[in-house]
Structure formats: structure tokens, C-alpha cells
């Protein structure tokens, strides 16, 4: 049966944990053979053995995390890394500044004349560096893919540092296993071997395993773990450090008992405090999640609790505003659907009425008296007005993807003018030249229809509408100019806004629809006075259009 890289990584991690525990027992029970696998050789320091336990745990859960077992790994990796960091960062700082931190003798004491040891209890510089690299790998396991890629080179670095030390033992070169008299302690042989295999475990945990995201733990559990780890671990370190110091003082036993009592009380207080604080933070978040679930089921009457003055209450207020907007949007969507249905029905009925009136005019124009005929013409005019308003509304409501194609402007204008009733007193000048447009022909026809109708309505007696076409490097340009009375300065800035109109029977949706359609084409529409001119600019290509 083939052993998967992740499983091999986990086995190596468990070996590291076991060896770390064995050496810890050797120090606590003072068993020399457990401290060093070679008699009269360099011992693995107590801080190193503790760090191997938690480094093994870290690498084990990195592998599990990469398999998608993310839940408990989200707690265990940071806590394990925090413990190793407290040991190694303190020792490394003491090493750099040439001082004794007290961590070297934490929990157990090493003799000052230990073999190839610069300072009692102090591991080698390379040992401290390797443990910090392993912590970094644990942090990168939670990070973005760019940082996760660093786990493999970290694994190689850890292994190489271990291999160099092994070579030093084989060739009997102390400097290769990092011993410098009165400067750096030597790296123990079993420390070197463990680092070599732990580096391999890191490489295996990162390679050949797809990064997945599986189960998670509740935020309440994460916050509680954070408080407990950041509070209890330093307490344990401080108590352990003081226990060693107190051995040199008189009446140390009574002081130790006092410290134990204070530590127990502090621990209980920290646990209660952590549970209360984490609950106070997680409860409103869970409550907000429950509200979101209710809203997803269609219950828009429920609201998130806005009490308080912190970020979560601000989030709740923003959430409630979002729900109100969603509710309004839903109502508008329903109204839009209803308007669309009614508009189609009304337009069909109006078409029948309009055709009937045209038949009456054509068939009975010579038989009807002038008063009746004028009434029919007036009815037809009102039907056309209502049709325009219905068309404006439907054009504004409709949201359909663009169907882009190459189209001739003159052909579009020809088709557009067939649908418009042009008064005899208004002359329309078409462009002298034709240009090719990259557009949705049916939608651009709506725009041209609206603009020409607006120009017709703006001309009170007789006048002219001039349509011009031009091109530049990137755009096709259409200009529609009329000889009407113009637009007031107050109205011209609002003319494209929905529901804004200066007409007594207008919907205020025609020009808003024009702007929306042109902007769907990634183009622009503008207006200017003296004379009134609407200018449409359309890009010659729509390659970057979201509708393409």
C-alpha cells in the first residue's frame, strides 16, 4: 500500500512529539540517557524538547489543514506556535544581547558545566532559528497562496540546517554542528536528525496536496481559545521562572504555596473572563447570522439588534439599511413586472383603436362631416400620445442583453422615420454621409425615435430637424439638432433624470431610457442649447462591453 505524503508527514510529526516527550521526562526525572542518545555527548535542552513537541503538533496540523481538516487546526497551530515563539524569541533575544533571560532554566536546571554549552540551558543559535522557521510555516499555512508556497523552501532550510549538523558529527567538526566556545551551544545529534526529518515533513505537507477549505470552528470557540492561550501560557511561564528563582531564597516553600494559590485563582478568573468576553463578542454576530437566515427565507419584517456603539452595532445598522433597500427593490421589481404586463396589454388595445380610427378616416372621410372627422383626428392624436407614454415606460423597464451587430445609420433612420408621424410643417434633413455603427439596432432605434419625437414636440409652428453623422478614431457620432424653443438652464441639467419632464403629459422616462441604452453601449449622450442639439457617441468596438 502506497503511503501518501500527507500521512508520512503526520507520522514524522508524531515521532517528533514522542521524542520531545521522552527528553522532557529525561530532564524532569534526571535520566541522562534520555537527554542525549550518545553518552557524554551534547544534550537536547529542555526548551528544545518542549519546542519539538509543539513543532510536531504544528506540522501535523499543517498537513491536516491542507487536507481540508481546518477546524481544530485553526486553534492548535496558533497556540502551538505561540508556545514555541515564547521560548525561542526570548532565548534568541538573550543570545543576541549576551544576557541570561531565565527561560534557559525554566522548570528544570542544567548544570553550568554541560558539554559544549555556551550558557546553561541555552540551545544553539541554529536550533532557535529552525524553530522560528517552523512557526512561520504554521502562519503561512493560513495565508494566501503566495505565502503558502514558502512552506516548501522553509522545509528545505530546516532540513539543510539539520543535515549540516549531522555532517559535523560525522566529520568531527564542532563548528558544523554550530558550537562556538562561549558564543553558541552545540546542536545535539538527535536534534539534528529531528530537524532533518521535520523539514522533510514540511515539504511533504505542502507538496502534492491540494489546498482545500473544509470545516471550521465557531467564532465563540476561537475567541475563547485566543484569550486562554494569550493569558494562561504567559502565567505558566512566569510561575515556572519564579519557582526556579525562589530555590535560592529562604522560606521558599511558603512563597511557592502562595504563588500556586495566586496562579489557581488567576487561572479561574482568566477562564471565566475569557468565556464572558468571547460570548459578548460572538453573541451579536450569531444573532446577526440568525437574522440573515430568516431574511433568506423571505421574512423581511425581522431586524438586527442595533443597540450598542461598537463595530458590530454599526454592522447591524448597515445590515438593516441593506434589508430595507432589498425590500424596496423587491417592491419596485414587482411594480416593474406589473407595469410591463399592463403596458403590453394597453399597447395592444391602443394599436387596435389606432387602426380602427385610421380605417374610419380612410373609408368615411368624404361621408363624415368636418366636426366628426376632427374628433376622430383628435382621438388618434391622443392614442398616439398614450402609445408614446406606454413605450417610454416599457423601454425604461426592459433590461435585456445587447445584441450587437454592424448597422447602417441611414438604414436605422429610414426604419425609425417609418414609425413616426411627421407633421407637414417640419422638415427633416438626413445625414449626407452614412456611417457604420456597432450597436443593438432595435435599442438604438428606440433612442432615435425618442429624440426625433422630442424635437418634433419642441417645434411649435414650423421648423427643421437636422441629423448629422461623423466619426473620429474611436467613436461614431450622431447629432440631432432642432429649431425648437430650446431648453431652460434649470431643466437642461436634469433632463436625463428618471421622471423629470417639462411636458404636461410626459412620463419623464424617455430621455432616461435613451441615456441607459447609450451607456449600455459604453457610449455617452449629451445635450446643449442654441440650437438644441443631442449628441450620441458610440465606441466603434464593444470588445470590453459587459453585454458582449
Give structural notes:
- The protein has 548 residues and is α+β, with helices and mostly antiparallel strands.
- It has four domains: 5-217; 218-299; 311-390, no CATH class; 402-539, Heat Shock Protein 90 (2-Layer Sandwich), CATH 3.30.565.10.
- 60% of the residues lie in helices and 8% in strands.
- The chain has helices at residues 5-28, 32-35, 46-66, 73-97, 125-140, 145-148, 151-171, 189-206, 219-246, 252-296, 311-364, 370-397, 409-418, 441-458, 489-492, 510-520, and strands spanning 405-408, 426-429, 436-439, 463-471, 475-482, 524-528, 532-539.
- The chain has a five-stranded mixed sheet with strand order 2-4-5-7-6. Strands 1-3 form a two-stranded antiparallel ribbon.
- Helix 4 runs parallel beside helix 9 (219-246), helix 5 (125-140) packs antiparallel against helix 7 (151-171) and helix 11 packs antiparallel against helix 12 (370-397).
- Mean pLDDT is 81; it is low at 543-548.
Uncertain segments are: 543-548
Distance between the termini: 53 Å
Largest sheet: 5 strands, mixed
Number of domains: 4
Instruction: Give Rg in angstroms.
Output: 41 Å
Main features:
548 residues, alpha+beta, 4 domains, five-stranded mixed β-sheet, two-stranded antiparallel ribbon, 7 strands, 60% helix, 8% strand, elongated, disordered C terminus
Q: Which secondary structure elements does this structure contain, and how are they paired or packed?
A:
Elements: H1 5-28, H2 32-35, H3 46-66, H4 73-97, H5 125-140, H6 145-148, H7 151-171, H8 189-206, H9 219-246, H10 252-296, H11 311-364, H12 370-397, E1 405-408, H13 409-418, E2 426-429, E3 436-439, H14 441-458, E4 463-471, E5 475-482, H15 489-492, H16 510-520, E6 524-528, E7 532-539
Parallel strand pairs: 2-4
Antiparallel strand pairs: 1-3, 4-5, 5-7, 6-7
Amino acid at each position: 500500500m502506497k503511503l501518501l505524503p500527507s500521512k508520512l508527514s503526520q507520522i514524522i510529526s508524531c515521532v517528533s512529539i514522542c521524542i520531545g516527550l521522552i527528553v522532557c521526562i529525561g530532564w524532569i526525572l534526571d535520566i541522562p540517557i534520555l537527554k542525549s542518545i550518545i553518552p557524554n555527548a551534547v544534550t537536547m535542552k529542555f526548551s528544545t524538547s518542549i519546542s519539538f513537541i509543539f513543532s510536531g503538533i504544528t506540522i501535523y496540523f499543517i498537513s491536516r489543514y491542507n487536507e481540508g481538516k481546518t477546524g481544530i487546526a485553526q486553534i492548535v497551530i496558533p497556540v502551538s506556535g505561540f508556545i514555541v515563539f515564547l521560548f525561542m524569541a526570548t532565548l534568541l533575544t538573550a543570545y543576541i544581547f549576551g544576557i541570561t533571560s531565565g527561560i534557559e532554566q525554566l522548570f528544570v536546571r542544567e548544570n553550568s558545566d554541560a558539554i559544549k554549552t555556551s550558557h546553561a540551558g541555552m540551545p544553539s543559535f541554529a536550533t532557535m532559528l529552525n524553530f522560528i522557521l517552523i512557526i512561520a510555516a504554521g502562519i503561512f499555512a493560513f495565508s494566501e497562496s503566495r505565502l503558502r508556497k514558502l512552506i516548501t523552501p522553509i522545509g528545505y532550510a530546516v532540513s539543510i540546517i539539520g543535515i549540516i549538523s549531522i555532517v559535523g558529527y560525522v566529520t568531527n567538526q564542532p563548528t558544523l554542528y554550530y558550537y562556538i566556545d562561549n558564543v553558541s551551544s552545540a546542536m545535539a545529534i538527535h536534534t539534528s536528525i529531528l530537524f532533518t526529518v521535520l523539514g522533510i515533513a514540511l515539504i511533504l505537507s505542502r507538496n502534492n496536496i491540494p489546498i482545500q477549505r473544509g470545516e471550521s470552528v465557531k467564532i465563540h470557540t476561537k475567541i475563547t481559545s485566543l484569550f486562554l492561550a494569550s493569558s494562561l501560557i504567559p502565567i505558566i511561564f512566569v510561575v515556572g521562572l519564579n519557582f526556579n528563582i525562589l530555590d535560592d531564597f529562604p522560606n521558599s516553600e511558603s512563597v511557592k504555596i502562595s504563588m500556586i494559590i495566586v496562579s489557581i485563582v488567576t487561572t479561574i478568573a482568566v477562564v471565566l473572563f475569557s468565556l464572558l468576553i468571547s460570548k459578548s463578542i460572538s453573541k451579536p454576530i450569531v444573532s446577526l447570522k440568525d437574522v440573515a437566515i430568516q431574511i433568506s427565507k423571505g421574512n423581511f419584517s425581522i431586524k438586527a439588534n442595533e443597540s450598542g456603539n461598537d463595530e458590530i452595532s454599526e454592522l447591524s445598522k448597515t445590515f438593516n439599511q441593506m434589508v430595507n433597500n432589498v425590500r424596496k427593490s423587491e417592491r419596485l421589481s414587482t411594480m416593474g413586472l406589473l407595469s410591463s404586463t399592463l403596458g403590453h396589454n394597453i399597447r395592444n388595445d391602443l394599436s387596435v383603436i389606432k387602426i380602427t380610427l385610421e380605417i374610419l378616416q380612410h373609408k368615411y372621410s368624404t361621408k363624415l362631416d368636418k366636426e366628426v372627422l376632427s374628433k376622430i383626428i383628435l382621438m388618434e392624436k391622443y392614442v398616439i400620445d398614450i402609445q408614446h407614454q406606454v413605450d417610454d415606460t416599457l423601454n425604461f423597464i426592459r433590461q435585456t442583453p445587447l445584441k450587437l451587430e454592424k448597422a447602417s445609420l441611414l438604414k436605422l433612420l429610414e426604419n425609425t422615420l417609418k414609425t413616426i408621424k411627421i407633421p407637414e410643417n417640419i422638415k427633416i434633413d438626413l445625414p449626407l454621409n452614412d456611417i457604420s455603427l456597432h450597436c443593438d439596432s432595435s435599442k438604438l432605434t428606440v433612442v432615435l425615435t425618442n429624440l426625433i419625437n422630442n424635437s418634433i414636440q419642441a417645434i411649435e409652428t414650423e421648423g427643421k430637424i437636422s441629423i448629422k453623422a461623423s466619426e473620429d478614431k474611436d467613436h461614431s457620432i450622431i447629432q440631432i439638432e432642432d429649431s425648437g424653443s430650446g431648453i431652460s438652464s434649470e431643466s437642461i441639467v436634469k433632463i436625463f433624470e428618471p421622471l423629470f419632464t417639462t411636458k404636461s403629459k410626459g412620463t419623464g422616462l424617455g430621455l432616461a431610457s435613451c441615456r441607459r441604452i447609450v451607456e449600455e453601449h459604453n457610449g455617452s449622450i449629451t445635450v446643449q442649447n442654441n440650437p438644441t442639439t443631442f449628441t450620441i457617441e458610440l465606441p466603434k468596438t464593444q470588445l470590453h462591453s459587459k453585454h458582449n
